[in-house]
Here is the input.
Amino acid sequence: MRVRFFRYVRRNRRNIPGLLWTLSTVFFIFAMIYQPAVVFQGASEGLKAWWQIIFPSLLPFFVASELLIKLGFVHFVGILLEPAMRPLFNVPGAGGFVLVMGMAGGAPVNGLLTAQLREKKICTKSEAERLVCFTNFATPLFMISAVAVGMLERPELGLFIAGIHYLASIIMGLGLGFLSPARQKSRSGSTPFSLRHAFAAMARHQRSHNQTIGMLLNDAVTSSVLKLLNIGGFIILFAVIIRIFTHTGLLETVSAVFSLVLLPLGFAGEIMPSLAGGLFETTIGSSMASMSSAVEVQKVIAIGFMLGWSGLSVHAQVAGMVAGTDISLRLFFVTRIVHAFLAALLTWFLYPISHPALTVFSPYAPFYGYPAYRIVFCFFALAACLLVILVFLSLILQYTREIARSVRVFGNRRL
Here is the structure.
């Protein structure tokens, strides 16, 4: 009987994922019927988080990115950043725009922009899959304000946590670019740095897509609001799932699995429930870690791990952004695991025992106390500064290659 069962499973293994999803959905429906109060509470918490945090913080970035893409700014940036993005990450120069907006706006802005680049055929399928992997960031507001100030009550750790998060992602992006099988071919076709060609490409795009500013604004706002409604649905869904898992004890089972691996390494048992919660939602897991009785270094390591993993909620949001393209998220899922462990290891190695050098970055007025318009303005200023830095890096790399080429030609002539 058992042999027949395994033969049947082997012959019909393609049907297993669909069957598992069906069983999960049925379980979810029964849980909602059995515990409607728990479901309502989870949905209310998810809706509150989306309306008060996600919607006002992401809407300006979504609208701005839509406008910039429609106005051809991506083509302008693509030519300027090609000398830097191609040798470093083996992606087109327009990937620098995704990198900067992802750093400033956080996920799933990177998924939205990568999908748009792929739809316009600015990047290949392989480049898009790698680009969405190393541009998936948590927002600076969340890491510096919510985590460091609000949860850990240590403002001086804000830049440390954010720096580790960004550093791990950049290292991963460099590794993905270096290991790409099409690296040599892509390098040979790189575009030289040219401000005149960049302006010409943007003007050419605007002439071919002649739209009034009213039409552009209407399309950008409509598209952004619809995408944010999609994100809100994912946030509410996962808030309900976490509530159900907590109420049924499944979250404790996940915690026990983490305990089998981490307790022998010296981690406190109190940190395990937070990792189980962060598996689904980073905000919930980080809050649970900050309230645990573990030592501070273990809290910071756990939070760095969860920020790198991003949570299944963010995974689903990014999947929703790229759903209409041919971008596969298998590499994205693997790199989330790599990013999580890399961030945890970097935190372990670089965690400051004392913080005298970091206290200069801890202002008396917490960042989260600023008005929303000032926070959004600061993020756009950060994005502009990052773009300028990347442009200068492109210019330096371009002149370095030209000097090296001249020296090589001069040496050959002498020989």
Q: What stands out?
A: The chain has 19 helices and no strands. The two ends are 79 Å apart (CA to CA).
